[in-house]
Amino acid sequence: MGCITMRKTIIPKHCHFSCYIEAKNTNGLLKNFIIESLLSLNGVLKNISLSVSNKTHEVSGVAQIFVTRIYSDSFEMKLSKSFEKNKESFLNILKEKIIFIEIKIKYCYLDTNVKKYCWSDHYILSIKIITDEIVNLNVSHIRGLRRIPIETLFNTFYYSLINLFRTNKIPLENVRVIRILG
Question: Which of 26, 29, 59, 113 has its CA 20 to 30 A from that of 86?
Answer without folding.
Answer: 26
